[in-house]
Amino acid sequence: MTDTFFQPVSGFELPRFAGVPSFMRLPVVQPGHPRFGDVQIGLVGVPWDSGTTNRPGPRHGPRALRDASTMIRAMHPVTHQRPFVSHRCADLGDVGPNPANIDDSMTRITAFYAQLVQKGIRPLTAGGDHLTSLPVLRALAADGPLGMVHFDSHTDLYNEYFGGARYTHGTPFRRAVEEGLLDPTRVVQIGIRGTMYDTEDRDFAKAAGIRVIAIEECMARGWADVMAEARQIAGSEPTYVSYDIDFVDPAFAPGTGTPEVGGPTSFDALSVVRQLHGLDIVGADLVEVSPPFDLGGATAYLGASLMFELLCAMAAEPDKGAWV
Ligand code: MN
Ligand code: MN
Predict the structure, then answer these.
(1) How much distance in Å is there from the Cα of 138 to the middle of ligand 2?
(2) CA 152 / ligand 1 centre spacing (Å)
(3) Which ligand is nearest to the CA of 263?
(4) Residue 324 above 90 pLDDT?
(5) pLDDT, tens digit, for every residue of 292-304?
(6) 74 touches 8 (CB < 8 A)
(7) Cα of 242 to ligand 1 centre, how many Å?
(8) What is the span of the domain harbouring residue 45?
(9) If we measure between CA atoms, which residue out of 144, 225, 154 comes closest to residue 186?
């Protein structure tokens, strides 16, 4: 029977522009709330962009994504999934970072997510810049390395910036591999493009056994073929999904700090997530939405729509296999 407490507010009951915006109009259930332990999938905001090396703004992402997500209805248009019926979902609020201290922020984020792991709550995160994924993975991979499907224009595998800065949004997955949070042989990076500093990140990927699929290969092979390979690489073991909004062409997602032209459409951006069905997804994130660079809320709405796709991928039953 459906637990009515965890149902989102319907647009039939209260107009979408009315009310206090939570993620997808779900109840806000923060730690200490009597129903906190009943949550199965928790939507979390991490308003933090201290890892940003160029144009900032993702600290404003969760608020814009909550607002845009009031447009999301309860049923998936293609799969007809009802994730709010099949799973108890809630907005768990924001993790408060320390914008003046990267290490302290990461400690706070990991501590928050460790509570979720302890309660068996799977997190769907709204960033934040891409450094956000590192402290999340530190909590989620406590019992061993995870696989990862990573959509991005960039590998985020650099070693350091500015002569010694090891924690930026260009380095999280290098650190995650070094720290044993990811099994590099079960990591696939999809959509990589843009001008490069050098081949250092690609060299690291090759040496570690990470599969990098550049956009040229994606476009030549087609998304269905690429995603079949991605599912094979991640396999049946626990897998994290990390989605940088700059994976999408900036014509569709201008509101981001490091746009790269020549990317997928918003249609393909949504459909690749649907092709993750069948994986054992222990958590997912949507990062790098930067509202100050957005145009008319287009990026925030795409981001909110991608969060719904990610939620449906998390709610899909692995034994039903891929939706293709
Ligand atoms: Mn990234
Ligand atoms: Mn990127």
Answers:
(1) 20
(2) 6
(3) 2
(4) no
(5) 999 999 999 999 9
(6) yes
(7) 8
(8) 4-145+238-320
(9) 144
Which CATH number covers residue 15?
3.40.800.10
Contact 91, 46 (CB under 8 A): no
Look at residue 160 and tell me if it is in a domain: no
Q: Which ligand is nearest to the CA of 132?
A: 1
Question: Once rounded to an integer, what is the mean pLDDT over residues 118-130?
Answer: 98
The position carrying tokens 């949004």 is: 169
Q: What is the rounded CA–CA span in Å between residue 319 and residue 229?
A: 18
- pLDDT tens column, 33-50: 999 999 999 999 999 999
When the pLDDT of each residue in the chain is averaged and rounded to a whole number, the result is: 97
Whether 130 contacts 287, CB under 8 Å: yes
State the pLDDT confidence band at 317, using cuts at 50, 70 and 90.
Answer: confident
pTM strictly above 0.85: yes
Shortest-distance ligand to the CA of residue 191? 2
Residue 192 within a domain: no
- What residues are neighbours of ligand 1 (ion), with CB under 5 Å? 130, 152, 156, 244
- Predicted confidence at residue 48, as pLDDT, reads 98
From ligand 2's centre to the CA of 19, what distance in Å? 33
**Domains identified in the chain, total number:** 1
Give the separation between CA 289 and CA 120, rounded to whole angstroms: 27
CA 320 – ligand 1 centroid, Å: 30
